[in-house]
Amino acid sequence: MMDATTTTNPTQKKILIPVYNSRGDVEAFLFYPNLHNRNGEWIGWVTPQRDVYSVLGHYVGTLTSEPRILRTRVMEESKPSVTPPPSPGKISPPATVPLAPMMRELTYSTIDILLEEPERLHTLDVGEFREDMD
After folding, report:
1. Domain ranges of the chain
2. pTM for this one?
3. Residue 17 and residue 2: Cα distance in Å, rounded?
């Protein structure tokens, strides 16, 4: 397991950021650029443009500054899948996290991925979008 404050560069300290759902519950952690679930398992990553991808390379949504993972309910043009980076391994999430900040109301056209479609962010060993074994 990796300590959430470990980095390869000692002058630059990575920060573990809790990612909330719209109810204010912590559902994921961002250890940039990787997303981990509450158990510390890798579930996806975030690009510098704040696009969120699953461990299989499928577009999931966008990371907001609140931070939440949101996307439009109807995607007129789907983003192509990308090759995922190597798995970063498991992290040790903290025992306590700060309370959720005030979040703006969502319109009907926007969905909260961690609340309405959490199955889109799954670990490598589960998920309906995983390739079948022969």
Report:
1. 17-118
2. 0.82
3. 15
